[in-house]
Write a structure and sequence with these properties.
It is a single chain. With 387 residues, the chain is of the alpha/beta class. The chain has three domains: 262 residues, Metallo-dependent phosphatases (Purple Acid Phosphatase, chain A, domain 2), CATH 3.60.21.10; 54 residues; 55 residues, no CATH class. The protein contains eleven helices and 19 strands. The strands form five sheets. The chain has a six-stranded mixed beta sheet with strand order 6-5-4-1-15-16. It has a six-stranded mixed beta sheet with strand order 7-8-9-12-14-13, with no helix packed on it. Strand 17, helix 7 and strand 18 form a beta-alpha-beta unit. Helix 1 runs parallel beside helix 2. It is globular and about 70 Å long.
Length: 387
């Protein structure tokens, strides 16, 4: 069975206030052509269909058009909700849409209810695990302490239990939206940290032939059976080095997996350039970036006059301007930035406690801080659901 694994469409998202709707429409049209040209048997969409819980009408229309095109090809699509989606809104009408071969999985309670598709070698069970916000699904999965590993592990236990009751030789595919250990993040994914830990081990997905992951925006292979498709478009300058693609996966009769990358259309390249304003305006090596979307980091010790306008004369696609003046190593601003670099909210809060009273928090106080951050994130997630 041939599968096309994609994820993180983020329909409705802009890039530094530049609309990407045309680029997203181009991608979806391209996806349909790939399905047709490569004789794809099923499309897998591993979450973050939309960029926010209440997407703009134009994004909903794009989604609707894509579903109609796939349905016309009579190619089944299995799709889960991600952490940017409103699961309840995305799942409206799922029962009716399923009759057209579009299988939406947005309800955590149905994680172990597979979509069954067949080829000449027998059935393949597709298990759609929507994004599982630990604080919101801990009761459903009866876990003692809400964490990503705990709820995903419990959901996969149900999947394996269901699969064990299937006829011998039934192949299996899981779709999940999570941060799996070994994955490389970018700046455009929303933080899903809980208890100071966001990542789950790839071993959570043991027992299925292929796991189609969403959430991280870079296409990457965790192992031969666990992969991220990544986003089809770049949504931050941290993705300037990404090769945007989808996975074309062949699932053999014995469950063996082979995969190749199918490159996505690039509407406009990204470039990150750095130097003084005078250097950026004169450097001939930057000629190749004059047609790109540009993030410019200025290292001038004194902020120059009208830098955006002057950069725009050479690089009309300049969207982001960052000031990083070159400073002496003992400059207070440099040392403060270094102290914060790479530190999460929990560590910064613990440092603040130590700074204020002279000693860091004890273990009980660390738990209080961790619970406070988890509650704040859960409240934010609940607000997205309510919206």
């Amino acid at each position: 069975m041939r599968l096309l694994h994609t994820s993180d469409w983020h329909l409705g998202r802009a890039f530094h206030r530049v609309s990407l709707l045309n680029a997203q429409a181009e991608f979806l049209a391209y996806l349909v052509e790939v399905v047709r040209e490569h004789a794809v048997d099923a499309v897998l969409v591993a979450g973050d269909v939309y960029d926010r819980a209440v997407p703009p009408l134009a994004a909903v229309e794009l989604f609707d058009d894509a579903l109609h095109r796939l349905a016309e090809l009579r190619v089944p699509t299995v799709m889960i909700s991600g952490n940017h989606d409103s699961a309840r809104r995305l799942g409206v009408g799922a029962g009716l849409i399923e009759r057209a071969g579009i299988h939406l999985r947005t309800d955590p309670a149905r994680s172990a209810t597979p979509v069954l598709l067949s080829d000449r070698h027998g059935e393949v069970a597709f298990y759609g695990l929507p994004y599982l916000e630990p604080a919101l699904v801990k009761d459903e999965f009866a876990v003692d302490r809400p964490s990503h590993e705990a709820v995903l592990g419990a959901a996969m236990d149900r999947v394996r239990a269901d699969l064990a009751q299937r006829p011998p030789g039934t192949r299996s595919v899981a779709l999940a939206h999570a941060f799996v250990t070994g994955g490389e993040a970018s700046d455009s994914e929303r933080d899903i940290t809980v208890g100071g830990v966001a990542a789950v081990p790839a071993g959570v997905f043991a027992g299925v032939d292929y796991t189609a992951l969403g959430h991280l925006h870079g296409s990457q292979t965790i192992n031969d059976r666990v992969r991220y498709a990544g986003s089809p478009l770049a949504y931050s300058f941290s993705e300037a080095g990404h090769r945007k693609s989808m996975w074309l996966v062949d699932l053999a009769a014995d469950g063996a997996v082979t995969a190749e990358r199918i490159d996505c259309p690039v509407p406009r390249p990204l470039a990150r350039i750095r130097g003084t304003l005078a250097e950026l305006l004169a450097d001939p090596r930057l000629t190749a970036h004059e047609g790109a979307w540009v993030e410019a980091t200025l290292t001038d010790r004194v902020r120059p006059a009208e830098p955006m306008a002057r950069l725009g004369e050479r690089f009309p696609g300049t969207l982001s301007l960052v000031f990083a003046p070159e400073r002496a190593p003992d400059d207070p601003e440099v040392s403060y930035a270094r102290r914060l670099a790479g530190r999460d909210d929990q560590q910064i809060a613990e440092d603040f406690v130590a700074h204020v009273r002279g000693t860091g928090p004890d273990e009980a106080e660390r738990v209080v801080l961790r619970d406070a951050f988890d509650t704040a994130r859960a409240d934010d997630a609940l607000h997205e659901v309510v919206r």
